Amino acid sequence: MTAVIDVHRDALDVGRSVASRIAEVISARPDAAVGVATGSSPESIYQALAEMVATGLDVGQVQWYALDEYVGLPQGHPESYRAVLDRVLVRPLGLDPATVHVPDGFASDLEQAAAEYDILIRAAQIDIQLLGIGSNGHIGFNEPGSTFTSSTRVTELSESTRRDNARYFAHPDLVPRSCLTQGISTILSAAAIELVAIGANKGPAIAAALEGPTSTRSPASALQSHRHVRVSLDTSASSSLSHDFGAVPLP
Ligand code: GLP
Fold first, then answer.
1. Which of 224, 238, 244, 251 has the fewest CB atoms inside 10 Å of its own CB, making it the most exposed?
2. What's phi and psi for 71, nearest 5 deg?
3. How far is the centre of ligand 1, averaged over its atoms, from the C-alpha of 134 (Å)?
4. Is 194 a catalytic residue?
5. Spacing, Cα 58 to ligand 1 middle (Å)
6. Torsion over CA of 13, 19, 24 and 28, rounded to 10 degrees?
7. Residues of the chain with pLDDT under 70
8. Sheet of 178-181: strands edge to edge?
């Protein structure tokens, strides 16, 4: 495993640190392709980026690409990832919504939508990909058992992921059962990957991903084969690692 692992005091420091690296990529290449993730872990990154935009970072030419989308929600549902990214990314950063690409979970032909999204991502050549991790080790919606050669596809959510994500829905039965997700090989095609985890419930998944064997039981362990992975954790998400990294103070 060649990943750099940073442990920070809290989610705010994680956000500032990761956002500064995304900003560096954008400063070096104003029309960068940035892969974005949903879930609670990246929210502090988007807040930090919004502050940077307010103080002069120009993101006008950046293209943004989502990892995944639910299938089966009504169009415009507030928990569709299109709607979530609108709330946490598009509005705070003042983006043109046309620059934010999300797999089309409402398409009549989902297989075709998946294939087209895979082509879009590989053509975009993602410069930097943000990733969260599920408590079961999923990345995007690549659940345990997903092959490391998988491409963007229609797939099922595991019951543990449906339980984890039930907090966003009025009733657990309303959590969708299927989704579109970039595959593991699609994710690994990014030039650089930023994996983020916040909270003690991510500890075991992080330890399995970084210190365990590469195994489809831990989809995030596929990252061990990537040459440019940086992992940003708060202290609690690092608590299951065998090595004590200590928290890095930010300036
Ligand atoms: C969802 C998303 C993942 C995300 C995961 C963790 O299942 N599809 O991309 O990594 O949630 O979310 P959180 O950061 O809220 O724990």
1. 251
2. -115, 135
3. 5
4. no
5. 27
6. 180
7. 1, 244-251
8. 68-71, 178-181, 153-156
